[in-house]
Write a structure and sequence with these properties.
By secondary structure, the chain is an alpha/beta fold. It has a single domain, classed as TIM Barrel, CATH 3.20.20.70. Helices cover about 30% and strands about 20% of the residues. The protein contains seven helices and ten strands. The strands form two sheets. Strands 7-6-5-4-3-2-1-8 form an eight-stranded parallel beta sheet. Helix 1 packs parallel to helix 7. The radius of gyration is 16 Å and the shape is globular.
Length: about 210
């Protein structure tokens, strides 16, 4: 089981995640998020990540100039697109920046499922998340889950990651219902919005790995 802890903002939280066996660490570049980082902050954090752990930059409908500003300073391994980027835009970003791209797809009901297939043709990975409420200011990190049975037993052409409302208490059930072998968590390991709880990080990864 490969786990991504997203929205990290302190070296202490990175250390806790690494010690617990994290596979991916996520840095948020979205001004409306309580987890938003400046480029200098993100650079310092990324440099604290040991080799072998994938460093992910989450952006939302970012322009090329915004991505340039991040990638010029921050050593990133994977770009996570968490906005309304079209498949054409995903392919464009992948080609322009030469990095693998993970596209987030929001799910509320079965009418949202065809989009997963569509993005699987252009993205290197998929992040299958709960669709945000209509008036939400954040595209993710809202602590909401979708009906996991919607994707039970489904396979796509690229690796995928389950997100949305996961916590140390429900993660094993989520894996059982979906068959996921990669997981993404942010608010589910926080004590307050944007404040990671190191004990919850350790508990989540332990539970995700069958502990």
């Amino acid at each position: 089981m490969r786990v991504k802890i997203c929205g990290l903002s302190t070296v202490g939280s990175i250390t806790a995640a690494v010690d617990a066996g994290v596979a991916y660490v996520g840095f948020v570049f979205f001004a409306k998020s309580p987890r938003n980082l400046s480029v200098p902050q993100a650079r310092d954090l990324a440099l604290a990540v040991p080799d072998g752990i994938c460093k992910v930059a989450l952006s939302v409908n970012a322009a090329d100039a915004d991505l340039d500003a991040i990638l010029d300073r921050v050593p990133i391994d994977l770009l996570q697109l968490h906005g309304r980027e079209t498949p054409e835009r995903v392919a464009e970003i992948k080609a322009r920046f030469g990095l693998p791209v993970m596209k987030a797809v929001g799910i509320a009901d079965d009418t949202d499922l065809p989009a997963i297939q569509e993005y699987s043709r252009v993205a290197d990975q998929l992040l299958i998340d709960a669709k945000p409420p209509r008036h939400a200011t954040l595209p993710g990190g809202n602590g909401l889950a979708f009906d996991w049975r919607l994707i039970a037993g489904r396979k796509w052409a690229v690796p995928w990651m389950l997100a949305g409302g996961l916590t140390p208490l429900n993660v094993q059930e989520a894996v059982r219902l979906t068959g996921a072998d990669q997981l993404d968590v942010s608010s589910g390991v926080e004590s307050a919005p944007g404040q990671k709880d190191n004990e919850k990080i350790a508990a989540f990864i332990h539970a995700a790995q069958g502990g």
